[in-house]
Amino acid sequence: MIFKFLPLLLLLLFLSCDAQLDNPLDPEGDDFVEPETTITNDNLDGSVINTSSLTINWEGNDLATDYSVNLKNHLGWTGWSEWSSQTDTTYHYLNEGSFYEFQVKCRYANGIEDETPAIAQFTVDAVESPGIRFYPLYTDINFNSEVSIYIEGIDNISFGSVVFDVISENETSCNEIEISSIENAEGVDPLVFIVDSDSSVEPGVLATYTVNFGEDGDSGINNNYFDLAKITFSQTTQGTQCGKQIELRMNLEETELRDYNNNLIDIIDKADGVVGQ
Fold this sequence. Notes:
By secondary structure, the chain is mainly β. It has two domains: 33-124, Immunoglobulin-like, CATH 2.60.40; 131-276, Immunoglobulin-like (Sandwich), CATH 2.60.40. It contains one helix and 20 strands. The strands form four sheets. Strands 10, 12, 14, 15, 17, 18 and 20 form a seven-stranded mixed β-sheet that branches. Strands 2-8-7-4-5 form a five-stranded mixed β-sheet, with no helix packed on it. A hairpin with a 2-residue loop joins strand 4 and strand 5 (76-77). The longest helix is centred in the N-terminal third of the chain and has 16 residues, at 6-21. The chain is elongated. The relative contact order is 0.16.
């Protein structure tokens, strides 16, 4: 009896195999299409961007369903993100002078991934010279405790002072984060003191720090780009997560830098920092 239906069974088997060969999602099929991802930002790869925040857009071929991204920064690769149908992402607190590499890949509904992710490499130049900034712009105190004050685009500095405020939207929300020390960078000898701010006059200002450097009017600094001081942060209560952050806001009105001829240096740009948990 089975032999009576054998030709029909063979035909159905043939048609089933042929359907797989015509399936663009089947890597064994003749019509298989490799996953392909494209970054759609114009001329991003190899560029120098003038902003510390950047939105990157991408697209996949018609069969792509979701995407994963990865970013290499000054700490290394952040790791591939969770898969998502989102076709853009925004990065904040991109560090001045830093090199970044962004990668994105797509995948199909059956789990087949793009084996050659789209890549864009770029460098950040967001602070106009002469400028002053924090590095890194964002610090997660759970992984890093140091932030540096950088001065750039200045040929020589004889002496001066740098003033910055520690800001919090809620003065009591982040008591677990505090500055434990400010030390001189190599070749610089700053004198450091703290002036507490009156929160009733300046809401949200937890403290104001002044970093004085250059004893007797001569600091010996002669560079176009240098690290002035290192700020070390600590948690006053271990093992807790307040989920908040504090801002390091440079006060250009109070900051004063002088060159070797005692001329006031006009600082025209800055980049504030953030410390969070």
